[in-house]
Design a protein that fits this description.
By secondary structure, the protein is mainly β. The protein has one domain: OB fold (Dihydrolipoamide Acetyltransferase, E2P) (Beta Barrel), CATH 2.40.50. It has no helices and five strands. The chain has a five-stranded antiparallel sheet, with no helix packed on it. The radius of gyration is 11 Å and the shape is globular.
């Protein structure tokens, strides 16, 4: 089940020539807690930006995908 969140910071980086993102976000129902996820760009919508409202998919608290809400 996806949870709504706010992207706080987005840091792109490259690992072995492949694009990745380090994402800092807060869930809508826990705005004071900032969480972090690192994932391949293939699991994130194109061009994520700080301040975007997103839907975070996760399994056992491991983020598996990020979609822009809207």
């Amino acid at each position: 089940m996806a949870r709504e969140a706010l992207l706080r910071k987005v840091q792109p980086y490259s690992l072995h020539g492949e694009p990745y993102y380090q994402l800092f976000f807060s869930y809508a129902d826990e705005p004071e807690a900032v969480r972090e996820a690192r994932m391949a760009a293939t699991n994130v919508y194109p061009n994520p930006q700080e301040g975007d409202t997103v839907l975070i998919d996760s399994v056992l608290n491991v983020v598996t995908g990020v979609e822009k809400k809207g």
